[in-house]
Amino acid sequence: MSRRIKLIAGNWKMNGSRAVGAAFIDRLGALRPAAGPMRRMLICPPATLISSMSDGLKALGVMIGGQDCHVQASGAFTGDISGPMLRDFGCDYVIVGHSERRAVHGETDQLVQAKALAALEIGLIPIICVGETLAEREAGQAESIVRAQIAQSVPDRIAPANLVVAYEPIWAIGTGRAATLDDIAAMHHTIRDALTVKSGDAEGGLVLYGGSVKPGNAAEILALDIVDGALIGGASLAAEDFAAIANTVSANA
Ligand code: PEP
Q1: Are 6 and 222 in contact (CB under 8 A)?
Q2: Is the shortest distance between the CB of 168 and ligand 1 below 6 Å?
Q3: Contact (CB, 8 A) for 195 and 205
Q4: In a domain, 38, yes or no
Q5: Which candidate in 70, 98, 107, 136 is catalytic?
Q6: What confidence tens digit (pLDDT) does each residue in 33-68 have?
């Protein structure tokens, strides 16, 4: 299998101000992680910062994305943001189905799939998040839970270039306790198999790992051939950490 592009994506969640965004861009500009065709970098800040960060990030070769989008393009949906609005501000990606939205906002697999389809329709690449709880893992259900999430959250027959899934075991998010390399590799093989069943040809799609990725563990996680990148929460808020994680991956073939 030839090496796929690796995607290093930051999810800022509900963190950051204009000053924090500007300081991040200044610092990342000083660090300048090398650009190259085999590695993509992406920051998904809160919606309030997309406008002020978009140009600065792009000037550094870093793409920008949203953290969620509504299924409709516009309308009476107080507090929501649509795919066309994200496109209007230069977003190329949007995270859908993050476990925090599934848990806090009651998002179902069916809604996540509808959001992914709405994103694709407007030209955004959805990063579709899946992952099991600790109780599900301890009960030996991790694989079946994730297979079911793939079956129901991922639209049928997405073109491989638009297919990005993030495996984020819920017990590893924000806990400082990343999954083991063996567990990551095993689940990524399961996901790739489930995607091939779902999408026909999933070879070009990307499967990211997320959950307590930091500069100290990124190199070994991202060195796994089956891992096509990382979705990074806490560590992506510091330009030094984001750049250090990105620099564990060669930007060139
Ligand atoms: C996330 O929120 O997607 C995430 C992986 O968070 P953290 O890196 O902080 O565990």
Answers
A1: yes
A2: yes
A3: yes
A4: no
A5: 98
A6: 987 899 999 999 999 999 999 999 999 999 999 999
Helix (H) or strand (E) holding 65: strand 62-66
**Catalytic one of 70, 100, 168, 188:** 168
Q: Which residues of 181-193 are buried (b: 16+ CB within 10 A; e: fewer)?
A: eebbbebbebbbe
CA angle centred on 94, ends 109 and 211, rounded to 5°: 70
How many structural domains compose the chain?
1
| Domain assignment of residue 202, yes or no | yes
Q: What is the DSSP letter of 225?
A: T
Tally: H helices and E strands in the chain:
10, 8
Give start and end residues of each alpha helix (H) in the chain. Answer: 18-31, 47-59, 83-88, 99-104, 109-122, 134-138, 142-153, 181-199, 215-222, 239-246
Query: Going by CA atoms, what residue is nearest to atom 1 of ligand 1?
Result: 233
Q: Is residue 198 part of a domain?
A: yes
33 lines ligand 1 (CB under 6 A): no
60 closest CA partner among 34, 37, 86, 38:
34
DSSP three-state, residue 175: coil
199 domain residue, yes or no: yes
How many Cβ atoms sit within 10 Å of the Cβ of residue 11? 26
pTM: 0.97
Alpha helix stretches (DSSP H) within 38-98 = 47-59, 83-88
Which CATH number is 239's domain given?
A: 3.20.20.70
172-211 residue pLDDT tens? 999 999 999 999 999 999 999 999 988 887 788 999 999 9
